[in-house]
Amino acid sequence: MAWRSFLFSLIFFVILFVATEIILRIALVCYGYPFWKPGDYLYTGFYPTLKEMIGKDIRSDDEVQDILILGGSVISTPWSNMEMRLDTILQKKYGKSKKFAFYNTAAAGHTSLDNLIKYKLLADKRFDLVIYYEAINENRANCIPDKDFRSDYAHIKWYSDIYLLQAHPEINFTVIPYVCALVIRGVRDKVTRKVYVSQDMVDPGFAKFGSNIKTALPYRENLTNIINISNKRGDALLLMKYASYFPEGVKLTGDQKDMDHFAGCHYASPVTIWGQADNVKKGIQSHNQILTDLAKRKQTHFFDMAANMPQDGRFFCDVCHVSELGAQNFASKLAGHLIDSRLLEHSD
User: Fold this and answer.
1) Which residues of 334-346 are buried (b: 16+ CB within 10 A; e: fewer)?
2) At 104, is the secondary structure helix, strand, or coil?
3) Are the CB atoms for 174 and 21 separated by under 8 Å?
4) Does the pLDDT at position 223 exceed 80?
5) Which DSSP string corresponds to 31-98?
6) Are 82 and 329 in contact (CB under 8 A)?
7) Which among 69, 83, 212 has a CA at the least distance from the CA of 143?
8) Per-residue pLDDT tens for 109-122?
9) What is the rounded CA–CA span in Å between residue 218 and residue 239?
10) N or C: which end of the chain has fewer CB within 10 A?
11) Which pLDDT belongs to residue 348?
């Protein structure tokens, strides 16, 4: 009788486990997770720009010049179509003697941390060139009281969610531990009144805290890790100083009247989505200084895009996004640097 009781309990447990697993997977599907491989939500939910690269044989020892673009919205495909602009210019220069494949992973709101995570996720890829361009989105992380700031940006729920997902590699086999962890974190955050800031906006009540550029050290660490990874993999890395435009003598407030000083683009972002204008400018300068110092100290390739973008509102939609005229200038100056420095001829 004992073995029958054990067998019955085992069967009941298996049925309960399977039923629970199916129900929880269906619940996760409602939030956008894939049913069969919910762990892929790291790609489909957080970093969809990486999806096309999964399973691709990307290597730096063939005839194709593979170029990875890391950054935020300024050089992303929806905003500037930068990869197409660069490809057109480079093809005109090199003709049929070179083939280019651009992988633009830049996306709105992405910080140095997002770009580090994306680069890590591409561990089996090898690129002829990696281009890095981002120094503004980090400012949102500063807009929180000092006591609530976390150097790993876990005070932004976006990253807290990523860390939780990465902490459960078993999720494709069973989602139960992950869902339990989600529930426990939710309860804990409620009890402790955890303070989170948004990944894509700034709470006006927290904007004043952005004057302390708390992201300086994390930005340095994230960028240093990107440099170290590129050295280890043998990927050439180009760091670009970030270009911005703050009209001289104008106090930007985030109101529509700010746009009178820019190009009048169909899409433009008020400076307040990154914080108070003075703090945003201060943050960009701080991050740019770190990037410039690291490029010199680590002897990476470097291009001063800030010096190559005219301080003229016609070239900018807002304090960082470029207009059509600005995008043309950006692509032309960057492509010219790639050609003049022979960065794409190292394998010849």
Assistant:
1) bbebbeeeebbee
2) strand
3) yes
4) yes
5) TT--SS-GGGHIIIII-GGGGGGTT----SSSSEEEEEEEE-GGGSHHHH-HHHHHHHHHHHHHGGG-
6) no
7) 212
8) 999 999 999 999 99
9) 17
10) N
11) 44
Check if the beta carbon of residue 51 is closer than 8 Å to that of residue 103.
Answer: no
Q: Using only C-alpha atoms, what is the Rg of the chain?
A: 23
Q: Is the pLDDT of residue 80 over 50?
A: yes
96 burial (CB, 10 Å; 0-12 / 13-18 / 19+) is exposed
The tally of CA atoms less than 13 A away on the side-chain side of residue 75 is: 30
CA pair distance 56, 24, nearest whole angstrom? 31
* Dist. CA 269–CA 256, nearest whole Å: 10
Tokens of 65: 């010049």
State the amino acid at position 302 in one-letter form. Answer: F
Question: What is the rounded CA–CA span in Å between residue 35 and residue 19?
Answer: 14
Instruction: Tell me 64's DSSP state.
Output: E
| Sign of the dihedral through C-alpha 234, 298, 104, 335 | negative
Residue 347 has pLDDT above 50, yes or no: no
Question: Which tokens is 27 given?
Answer: 């619940």
Give the angle 78-330-74 at the CA atoms, nearest 5°: 35
Positive or negative, the Cα torsion across 184, 186, 192, 195?
A: positive
Phi-psi region of 213 (alpha: psi -120 to 50; beta: other; left: phi over 0): beta
Average pLDDT of the residues of the chain: 93
**Residue with token string 């220069």:** 93
Coil, helix or strand at residue 10:
helix
Write down the H helix ranges in the chain: 2-29, 41, 77-80, 82-94, 112-121, 139-142, 157-166, 176-192, 216-233, 277-298, 305-308, 324-340
Residue 278: other Cβ atoms inside 10 A: 14
pTM of the model: 0.93
Cα distance between residue 85 and residue 64, in whole Å: 18
Strands laid side by side in the 237-241 sheet = 99-104, 64-71, 129-133, 237-241, 301-304
User: pLDDT tens across 279-334, in order?
Assistant: 999 999 999 999 999 999 999 999 999 999 999 999 999 999 999 999 999 999 99
What pLDDT is recorded for position 6?
Answer: 62
